[in-house]
Amino acid sequence: MKSAWHLLVCMAVVHSTLIAAPLDTLAGGQTGKIEYQSITPPDRWQFVRKNLDNTKTVTVYGDLLMPSRVGGKLPAVVISHDSGGVTPKLYDVWAKSLNAAGVAVFIPDSFKPRGIDSTTNHQGQVDVSANVADALNALKLLATHPQTDANRIFHMGGSRGGTAAFETQWGMVRKSVITGDLRFAGHVALYQGNCNTRFRFDRGSSKPAPMLALLGAADDGTPADACVAYYTELNRGGANIRWQIYPDAHHNFDGSTQRTYFPQGVTAKNCSIEVFLTDVKGGGLGEARNYKTGQPIQGFGEWNREFAACNTRGFTVAENRAAREQAVKDVLAFIQSVPPVAQTPVASPQVRQAVQSDLTHEQRTDEILRELAGGKQ
Predict the structure, then answer these.
(1) 211-216 and 197-200 as β-strands: parallel, antiparallel, unpaired?
(2) Domains of the chain
(3) Among 329, 347, 328, 75, which residue's Cα sits nearest to residue 186?
């Protein structure tokens, strides 16, 4: 924890801007703690249908961490946290490595502004669409920053955050917050939740941006085989999802927690249900079924009963240093390989002034990859 707080304190001293009100632009080059407006939807159905009757506005915040050396416009990553909230690994592992490679990092906190500490034992405290909304609103903000490249902003997360990173790739979801063509350039999901309970947005969505899925072979909370089966089906329909499965890796393999069993931790590993959502108001549940038996599910009442019946408790978390180090390499390589997304610029050239540096992003990425591979001590 010391190193995480050390990083935050250093960034705050050098970069932090005092926030008087939630921001709708970062054209001033603000960094550090950023407050901005988002929403708390009650569920995915009302979120994609833009039903505001039961949706609350909320001021959330996140940490924007910039590399110490900046050359031109930077790629950026929005990191959505897991059910444990914002934890040190997001800074010590991910922000540190990404910043060192010349990538800006924004870490929204979707829990504390809503009065929540953790959803590990009770996922119903807030719907994952809140994490999704926070990430999409963060994208809108980052696209206005003079040091970020609006065409190279990525979305990443683990577990619940992995679900959020997965869902923002679909046009139906993105359009719930963003009316224009601004979108994430790519998505990274670590040990994604909801591979057994599939909330599907692929019908009627345009071809999504590339996604990298990082899975643990020993994960007993979000089993890798369920995700691979799901991704394989989606790829046949036009998605672009690639994956890596790390041997002997459990849930939260990129963290620092020694092997621990959470007896009350919620898991959907015994589920095999899916629903195709529609953004049409009054569209009801949507087509739903048990995707293994083919048995249809009729209406919200039956869906809720099926969902409650198949969800269970108990899974293991454990760090895996080899998987963690490989995951960092794989994410950096993915970011470097994905081309900029084609979209209308969100800010004029006058507010996007390049900051000079002796290293380009590509050079710095190559350097950090050599370091991680053991080429430099």
Answers:
(1) unpaired
(2) 2-260+319-341+349-372 (3.40.50.1820)
(3) 75
